[in-house]
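Let us begin with a simple case.
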Amino acid sequence: MRASLQVTVDCDPELSTIVVTGDCDEDSEYLLTEALAKVFAVEPRVLEVDVSGVGFGDSTLLHALLQALHTQSSRQRRLALRSPLGEAVERLLTVTGTLDVFERCVVDGASPQDGSPRGPGATLGGHERAE
């Protein structure tokens, strides 16, 4: 039995956060969709998504992350994925060939407020990545 999805949202025009834990699939898609709708309504300068607690993610999670990236980019705003991504999410992005799409979004630590992307040699999912 999979762990149920938990989604926590903090909406703020400067920095909004979404923390996702548990297993994300089509049965729990509505939780992620609702969270994104709430955040997009305030049009934050930075949307930070923490997926380090995701145990399983399928195309539903990938679609939500791509939607967040597209929406933030089209508004000339920033998406930040808190590092480490976690094994399940890093595997999802690697298998689908989208890891490079999100590479510049990954930030170390708890807050991307300075707007700087993850630097060379930083960890992605707990593993060193060659740049």
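The second case is a distinct protein. As before, the sequence precedes its structure tokens.
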Amino acid sequence: MFLLLGFLFVVLGQCFCLPLGNITDCGSTATITHVSMSGCDYTPCHMTGGQSYTGYTVFTPRHNHNEAHFMVSGIIRGEDIPVKPRNNICGHGLNCPLQAGQQYNLTVTYDFPSYPNASQHLNVAGKYYLKDENDINIICVVLAIIFE
């Protein structure tokens, strides 16, 4: 339920501010220097079902990674609910292997699903992450979203 947006962090476990506002790092091993998302100038991001959103993230891995698998989930009442399955994006937005110390630009477009009977706004936390071949978080970001 979260769209692939851009994301950011400075140090593990801290909340940082970027163009979108407060975004929480949920265990990144890379350094994130920029996060932005189409249609969202600040958090919480207001998202409408049936719309597409594009997220932009600039990051620098601290370690080499042969693979990069992109996933999206929503966090509702503390439960992590997968929304977009694990997809290897090497060759589809990122050139792998990812090299430590090299800056990468991740751009991902996500078609936000429509939910029937969604007559009320729903406040959730959106989470997106890249995991490597060993299931280690390369990047992991959480931000507030309001579904409309």
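The first strand starts at residue 15 and ends at 18. The chain has one domain: 15-147.
Keep these points in mind for the review questions at the end of the chapter.
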